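Listing S7. Sequence submitted for prediction.
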Amino acid sequence: MGSVPIPGDARDLRARLAVPVLAFGGILMAVTQTVVVPLLPDLPRLTHSSAGAVSWLVTATLLSGAVLTPVLGRAGDMYGKRRVLLIALGLMAGGSVLCALTSDIRLLIAARALQGASAAVVPLSISILRDELPPQRTASAVALMSSTVGIGAALGLPLAALIVQYADWHAMFWATAALSTGGLLLARWAVRESPVRSAGRFDTWGALGLAAGLVCLLLAVSQGGQWGWGSGPIVGLFVGSVVILCLWWRMQLRSEHPLVDLRLASGRRVALPHVTALLAGFAFYANSLVTAQLVQAPAASGYGLELSIVATGLCLLPNGVIMLVLSPVSARVSTARGPRVTLAVGAVFMALGYAVRIVDSRELWVIMVGAAVVSTGTTFAYSALPTLILRAVPVEQTASANGVNVLMRTIGQSVSSAAVAAILVHHTSTAGGLRFPTLGGYQLAFAMAGAVALVACAAALAIPSDTVPKGGRTSTGPGGPVQETALEGR
C-alpha cells in the first residue's frame, strides 16, 4: 500500500524554513565576531595579560576567517556544502564554549581562532541557496543572506554590552554558545545536502600556500600600527606575503585541480566583483568603526557625546534593521536592472552617507542619519556581490568563488581599520589631560571612505553587462559554463 501524503509534513516545513535557518546562521557568525569588542578595554585586567595580547582576540578571528573561508568553500564544493556548513557552525559553537570556560588568554585566543571558521557560513549558505531554490526565489534569499553580516554586527554590540554590564563576562560566551548550538541543530534539521559536486582532489598545497600568504599579509596590516609600519617584522611580513602569494599563483595556474580557479577568477566578470568587494568592505567598515569611537568621545573634545557602550550599540542597532528591511528591495532592483547597477547604486549611497558625516558630526540625529545612509548603500552593495559571482561561475564552483569574494571583503575591512587608525593617530588634540582624535581627523576618515566608495562605483560600472538566463541557471558542460535557457540581453 502506498504511503498517504500528509499536508504540511516535516519535509515541507524543513524546506520552508531553510532560508531563515541559514540567515540565522549568518547573523550568528557576525554576532560572534562582534561581541568581544565591548570587552577589550577590560580584558587585560580580567585575564591578567597585556593589551597587546588581548588584541589577538580580534586578530586571531580575522586571520582564521580569512584563511578558512576560501578553503572551506572549496571543500564544500567538493565534499558537500551542508556537511562543511555544519562543521563551520560546530567550530563556532565549540569556540564559544571554550571561551566561556576559561580566563586564560592563550586558550581564549585559540578559541577565537576556532570561531573564525564561522566566516565560511555565508558563502556556503549562498551556494546552498543557489543549488536548492527555484530561480525566482534565489535573488531575495541571497540578498537576505548577504545582509546578515551587517545585521549581526549591529545586533552583536548592544547585546554584548548589555550582558557585560549586568552579568559576568563569561555569560556573553555562554549566550553565543547556546545560540550557535541552536543554529547548528536547526541547520542539521532544515538544510538538505546539495547534490552538486566539483570533481578532483583537494589542493592541500594550494590551501597551505594561500594560508601562509594571507597570514603574512593580514598580520602585517593588523599589527602595523602597533609594531611600526617601517619595522623589520612588518616589512618582512609584507615581502613574505608578496613572495608566497606569487609562488602560490604560479602553482595554482599549473595545478590540474586548483584551490582557486585563477583563470576563471581573472576574467572581468569575476575579477571586478572581487575588486569591488574589497573596496566595499573598506567603505563599509569605516562606518561602524568611526561612529562607535566618535559618539563615545568625551565632551571636552568639543564634539563628543560621551555615550556609554550600551547607548552606542543602540545607536548602531537601526543600521541592522535597515539592512533587514532593504534586502528584498535590493533583490528587486537586481532583478529589474541587474546586480551591477544595484552594486553601483549602493556605492553611491555609501559615498552620500559619508558626505553627510563630513557636513555635521556633532548632532546625534545627523550622525545616525549619515550612518543609516551608509548602511543603505552597504545593503545594496553586499546583496549584489554574490549575485554577480553566481552569474559568472559554474554551479560546482559557487562556494569557493563566493568564499574568495568574502575574503576580499575581509581584506578591505582590515585595510580600512589600519587606515582609519593611522589617520586618527596623526590627528589628535589634548584637553583636560585627555588625548583624543580631532573632529578634522574623523572627517578626513569619512572623506577617505567616501572616495573609496566612489571608486567602488566606477569598478561596478566596469563589470560587463549581465547576459544571464531569465529564470535560468548556469551549468557546466564539457566546454565550460553553459546557459540552460535563452540569454537575457541587457
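Caption to Listing S7: primary sequence and predicted C-alpha cells for the chain studied. The two ends are 53 Å apart (CA to CA). Residues 1-8, 467-490 have pLDDT under 50 and may be disordered.
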